[in-house]
């Protein structure tokens, strides 16, 4: 009986040690999983902060470069306008001055020598019978002088128009030359040209990289990566929780089975001990009866 009790106690102590060892192993594994999760989360936070700082710094650098580029464009545009203005002024100064306007008809000067000689020759060529009167000759001379003045005015107007056309042509040529000059980096372009150039750059980028890589796409890619990382992290935590639940359930079932087995063993031991006691008592009674019978027989 002592041997069975010792065996039972030893088995119980072994089961308790095994249970404690399993609990310690589970706690150590849970602690390691928690530390790993915290370390991974800390690394993710640090990496996110570092990426955010780098992105802000890149944005600040881009903004500074954009402002510098716009300032250089304004300065170049101002210099080009000043140069165009100076070219137009130089062309206007180099053009010959227009002739003075003709005097009024009341103060008309004497007819030019050519006109006077022509009138005199015509008068001399007429026969004596057809010679005009002196008054008719004076009227013809006045009309010829008026016609000559009108022709001179028309010539002056034509010269002025030619000068203006030459000035406009020079300005247009200067503007065309300035526009045709190869533009430097950062020069201001007309809006239509900028749009065309932007479309061409976008097409080249699509051909090179197989798709548009604009700010919207970068943001979409970052969001997709964050969601994927979040999903992986959630899936990893879910897997860890499942493993821990399975291990905890196994330990609980083992403990329950051990307790149930112990109770069953204890009841079996108690029944065995009780049966032994009863057997010993019966044996003693029978032995006592036999002894009493012998005494009675001997006494008789």
Automatic annotation (TrEMBL):
InterPro entries registered for this protein in UniProt: Antifreeze_1
Family: Belongs to the type-I AFP family.
GO-annotated molecular function: antifreeze activity
Biased composition (Pro residues): 95-114
Biased composition (Low complexity): 115-139, 173-182, 198-210
Coiled-coil residue spans: none
Residue ranges, compositional bias (Basic and acidic residues): 7-63, 184-196, 214-235, 246-269, 276-300
Region (Disordered): 1-139, 173-300
Basic residues bias locations: 64-79
Taxonomic lineage from the root: Eukaryota, Sar, Alveolata, Apicomplexa, Conoidasida
Keyword field contains Kinase: no
Keyword terms of this UniProt record: Antifreeze protein
Polar residues composition-biased segments: 236-245
Name listed for the protein in its UniProt record: Uncharacterized protein
């Amino acid at each position: 009986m002592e041997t069975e009790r010792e065996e039972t106690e030893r088995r119980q102590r072994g089961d308790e040690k095994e249970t404690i060892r399993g609990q310690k192993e589970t706690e150590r594994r849970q602690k390691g999983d928690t530390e790993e999760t915290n370390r991974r989360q800390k690394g993710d936070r640090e990496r996110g902060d570092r990426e955010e700082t780098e992105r802000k710094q890149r944005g600040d650098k881009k903004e500074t470069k954009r402002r510098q580029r716009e300032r250089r464009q304004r300065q170049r545009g101002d210099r080009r306008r000043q140069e165009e203005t100076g070219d137009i002024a130089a062309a206007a100064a180099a053009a010959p001055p227009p002739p003075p306007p003709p005097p009024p008809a009341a103060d008309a000067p004497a007819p030019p020598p050519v006109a006077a000689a022509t009138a005199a020759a015509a008068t001399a060529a007429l026969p004596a019978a057809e010679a005009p009167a002196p008054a008719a000759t004076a009227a013809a001379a006045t009309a010829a002088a008026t016609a000559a003045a009108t022709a001179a005015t028309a010539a002056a107007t034509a010269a002025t128009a030619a000068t203006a056309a030459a000035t406009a042509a020079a300005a247009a040529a200067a503007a065309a030359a300035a526009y045709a000059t190869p533009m430097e980096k950062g020069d201001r372009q007309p809006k239509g040209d900028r749009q065309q150039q932007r479309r061409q750059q976008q097409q080249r980028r699509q051909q090179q990289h197989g798709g548009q890589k604009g700010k919207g796409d970068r943001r979409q890619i970052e969001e997709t990566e964050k969601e994927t990382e979040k999903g992986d992290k959630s899936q990893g935590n879910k897997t860890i929780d499942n493993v821990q639940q399975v291990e905890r359930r196994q330990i609980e079932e083992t403990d329950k089975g051990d307790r149930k087995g112990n109770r069953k063993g204890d009841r079996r031991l108690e029944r065995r001990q009780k049966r032994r006691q009863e057997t010993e008592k019966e044996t003693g009674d029978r032995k006592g009866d036999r002894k009493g019978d012998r005494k009675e027989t001997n006494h008789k």
